[in-house]
Amino acid sequence: MRTLDSTTSLRIAVQKSGRLTDKTINLLEGIGLEFDDYKRSLLVKCQNFDVELLLIRDDDIPEYVNDGVCDLGFVGANVVAEDGVDVTILRGLNYGVCRLSIAVPKEGDIKSVTDLNNKRIATSYPNITRNYLKGKGVESEIITLSGSVEIAPRLEIADAITDLVSTGGTLKANGLVEIEEMFQSETQLVQTKKPLSKGKQQLVKKILQRIEGYQLAAKSRYIMMNAPQESVPEIKNIIPSLKSPTVMPLADNGMVAIHTVIPLATFWDVMEQLKDAGATGIVMLPIESMIT
Ligand code: ATP
Ligand code: ZN
């Protein structure tokens, strides 16, 4: 007997239009999935995998994944936590990084969370905010707004707000200061807890493996340099990740070319040391994807 989902494509929920849209599509394209113009349709078929994207508001993604309408979803951890749905978090994705913070008017009397007792707090995240304050033993009136929360203190409808912050620029522009961080967020790949067909499970596994390779590649660089043959042991010591580099003889007597992959974070630290060890022509290249 055919199960219902074996007849359908793996359906992935993606934010239709917002901060996460382009980064999510870039990630999916970066792992080899090809799509027609995703800006024009709500349901977009993938050309080379049995996958389709459902483009919706980010607030709806946790519920769609929870219900099994979508098998996977790319959504902020903040939205998942606020909805309180029971989905499987497959992976954090290092983009859409932000924090949900409490902010207050700069010149006001509220300096810390405990000053918020019996005050009014405007937010689009009533559940996270309520739970956080409860944990601190603070009781406030929560005013739920769907957007433009930062203007609430100036309109005198709230004494404080909780809102997403990345650079802090919006808060500053509205005369607000952050007094407490409640929640750290990034985009997550989430999966429904409804059972998936074998075919879909394999596709999810493949997508996850490719994302892993894609993320690893983003943090790594391919480096090439020339060096005297006798410097190779010293160079191996300088680059901790260098287990078995490619070492190729050059036409010049006693010179070799060394190629290897290193974590991006170490590159600038080791560069001068490599130079001191005799390396020349050090070149660093980005890597599109890698499988270890
Ligand atoms: P939608 O129309 O889909 O409901 P939205 O206005 O709720 O869109 P965006 O502003 O596009 O949502 O933000 C989407 C997600 O981006 C947030 O839920 C959060 O996870 C992440 N994000 C990262 N930095 C910020 C930030 N500074 N402000 C708001 N969201 C941020
Ligand atoms: Zn939203």
Walkthrough of the structure:
This protein is an alpha/beta fold and 292 residues long. It has 3 domains: 10-94 and 187-217, Periplasmic binding protein-like II (D-Maltodextrin-Binding Protein, domain 2), CATH 3.40.190; 98-185, Periplasmic binding protein-like II (D-Maltodextrin-Binding Protein, domain 2, 3-Layer(aba) Sandwich); 220-285, Alpha-Beta Plaits (2-Layer Sandwich), CATH 3.30.70.120. It is built from 8 helices and 15 strands. The protein has helices at residues 21-30, 61-67, 77-83, 126-135, 169-173, 198-218, 232-238, 264-276; strands at 10-15, 43-45, 51-56, 72-76, 88-92, 98-105, 120-123, 141-144, 160-165, 176-185, 187-191, 220-228, 246-249, 255-263, 280-286. Strands 2-3-1-4-11-5 form a 6-stranded mixed beta sheet, with helices on both faces. Strands 8-7-9-6-10 form a 5-stranded mixed beta sheet. It binds adenosine-5'-triphosphate and zinc ion. Adenosine-5'-triphosphate is lined by residues 15, 18-20, 57-59, 76, 78-79, 96, 98, 164-166, 185.
In short:
The chain has 292 residues and is an alpha/beta fold. It has helices spanning 21-30, 61-67, 77-83, 126-135, 169-173, 198-218, 232-238, 264-276, and strands spanning 10-15, 43-45, 51-56, 72-76, 88-92, 98-105, 120-123, 141-144, 160-165, 176-185, 187-191, 220-228, 246-249, 255-263, 280-286. A hairpin with a 5-residue loop joins strand 2 (43-45) and strand 3.
